[in-house]
Design goal:
Distance between the termini: 44 Å
Strand order of the largest sheet: 1-6-5
Largest sheet: 3 strands, antiparallel
Order of helices and strands: EHHHEEEHHHEEHHHEEEEE
Number of helices: 9
Radius of gyration: 21 Å
Strand content: 15-25%
Helix content: 25-40%
Structural class: alpha+beta
Number of domains: 2
Length: about 325
Amino acid sequence: MTENRGPGSPVEHGFPHLATVRASITALFRRLSADGIGAYETSFAPADAAFDTTDDLYLGAQRVAAATVRALRLPDARMVVSFRAMEQAAAVELTAGPEYFVEVNDRFRTHRRDLAAALAHEVTHVLLHRLDLRFPDTAENEILTDTAAAYLGAGWLLLDAYREDALTHQRFGYLTPEEFGYVLAKRAALFGEDPAPWFTSPQAYEAYVRGRARAERDHRRAPLTAAGPLARRRYAKARRAGAGPADGPADSPADSPAAGPADGPADGSTYRFEPEGAGAGLRVSFPCPVCAQRLRVPVRGRLRARCGLCRTVLDCTT
């Protein structure tokens, strides 16, 4: 797992990987199903991440690793944690199991508060390996891992490890702090939980708030009835023209994330129109605000659409 640390290592911000993040959420739903995602309702408990100088180094590390395994529902996997000098924060050897060897940076011998964050990423690698879920590109696969960790309840630790001030620049993982906040907000909306009280880093909380604001925008995009007046006007203009422009940045998820998150509408549209049939009017397609799978519904005014992947029922005005 990568790690940005030190005043000379600026932390990337914003949402540069949002298309891959959304494709990752879709891929998780497709691989696990809505019921499978629901099994991760309980997040990693802050008490289970506690690891201080009073704990025996190896026993404490094994305890935190075992808690991470339980949180990610891998009860038949055993993590063997060792420490060594290395550039990255941690690395895992992916095998057939049930034993997996995780190496973590020597600095965690003394800087223990972030060990659980490093382990969360590596244990998620094991989970995805067992699920046979991956993207073709290595960088996108790492984003998938961070997204899965956050969406399945352990990745808030990775955001909490983010600290940035005059003396410290530290970030774990491959998502920006705001992107971690976005995924955590998606999870919070799905399960009705609020991770905000768990953050010990003020900067992590601020990033979560920014990510949450971006996630909330997904529920206010046309053709959803909750869309604002400006979005509705853009949508109506596009509907009259019979072709949908973007009502936001060109960051739509893939139609088929199993094939890689680079797929999707060529013009980056959030919604797009297509003929429903000979003389039968139009259909509009748009990403589900929960799982990001594209839905297709007829352009017939007010209707309720049910996502077949995450089972969310959406109030739409098409």
